[in-house]
Amino acid sequence: MSARNVASAMITPTLRVTEVTGTIFEGPNPATLELRTDDDVLYTGNAESLVGEVFEVWDVADDEVVSVSASVHLPAEAGDEYRTATGVVNWEYTAFAPEPPAALPPAQPGQPGAPEQPRLPMTGASSPAAIAAWGIAIGLAGVLLSCAARRPLKKRNDS
């Protein structure tokens, strides 16, 4: 089996044999179990004696892949009595990321250590100065139109 560390922190996976059953692991010449990583042999021997044992595989860095393999071997002395023998080995493979350090609650605005609040940009539609300028311009236009409408028209003298 293989697993990739995606925890962004160093982890140490463990392997624990939980159960060994079957006739292949019994009798005068039982099968042996070998557990290994790519580089190291973790164990070679009687599988039943491993039940409950925990192996730390090795430290695995961020984005590194760890592989563990298991194989069962019958000794050369094993006879025909093992021809139909079967067996099961169950194990748990566990890897936990370390707990992150406890974080302090963020400071509230206005408290020492609080980040400065970002200033929001003022656009033309929301700027008080722009609204006032539009109001004055519309008001002046209204006054000018009103004055022009009240003034009487002079007659032209075409003579």
What keyword list fits this structure?
alpha+beta, 14% helix, 159 residues, 1 helix
Structural notes for this entry:
The chain is α+β, with helices and mostly antiparallel strands and 159 residues long. The chain has one helix and seven strands. The strands form two sheets. A four-stranded antiparallel beta sheet has the order 1-6-3-4, with no helix packed on it. The chain is rod-shaped and about 140 Å long.
Span between termini: 113 Å
* Radius of gyration (Å): 42 Å
Q: Classify the helix fraction into a percent range.
A: 10-25%
Structural class: alpha+beta
Average pLDDT across residues? 77
Query: With helices defined by DSSP (H or I, 4 residues minimum), what is the helix count?
Result: 1
Low-confidence stretches: none
Task: Describe what is shown at a glance.
The protein has 159 residues and is of the alpha+beta class.
Give the helices and strands, then pairings.
Elements: E1 2-4, E2 14-21, E3 32-37, E4 41-46, E5 54-56, E6 65-73, E7 88-94, H1 128-150
Antiparallel strand pairs: 1-6, 2-5, 2-7, 3-4, 3-6
